[in-house]
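Hello Y.,

Per our agreement to keep a running log of every chain we model this quarter, I'm adding this entry. I've kept the format consistent with earlier entries: sequence first, then predicted structure.
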Amino acid sequence: MRERESLLSVQAKKWTSNIYRQNHRWSEKNSRKRSMVESKWIHTIHVEKAGLEIVDKLGWTDKKKELAMMLTYLHDVARPLQAIMTETFSDTSGNFNHSEIGANMVAIQYPEFPGKSEVVEAIYWHACYKPEIKTDLISFIRDADKYGILKHLDFYINNKLFTDYLPRGDISSEVADAFEMKQPLNYQMIRVKSPADVFVSRMAWMFDLNFPETQQLFIENSIPSQMIALLNQYQTNSNNLDRIVATMSEWQHEVVTTT
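Predicted structure for the entry above:
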């Protein structure tokens, strides 16, 4: 799989890149929109590489691996259109749900192939807080999406597109409290108040990694310690920072002792 991409994977990457390229041209006169489109293509490449790491550990059939890798390219296919139309990546404030629209785009516009309905289903559920159904492909793309971001948090936290709407500030107690629950943060329930809060909310995605293999990769690649080093760049409340570090250590111990 790593040595030679399948034809379906190559086609999915080409189809997705053409959509990004087209929207990039449409955004030429708006530097912010253009940067948004570019950032999501970089994210797609991050997810592709993360997906390769994960799928190599799962022992799936070649056909299942093929569908999984198609998802790494197709999962955010609606993001560039979202950037052009709403100038935000929020699925709520911009009235544009990229998962639902992306699933519809693939269902209607993408050529037929065996397993297409499973891929469309996984795109639809890949970014929701808690999916109503769970399949291997849904779990895979949710893991690859988050693992790809967690491996490159420095790119996201240093990219002002994701934090320039917030004032500088410490980690809020509300976010630290939620992090201690060892669950991904529900943005409809908790309001992030600073770039530090956004960073911690991304860190909390580690609690939503589905496969033990993904959790092991996360720890083996020393991503927790890298995240803590990045978090230290903020002038943060030492008490809240200590709570987050302690929670991460507890979670790592639980993963190591149960896998």
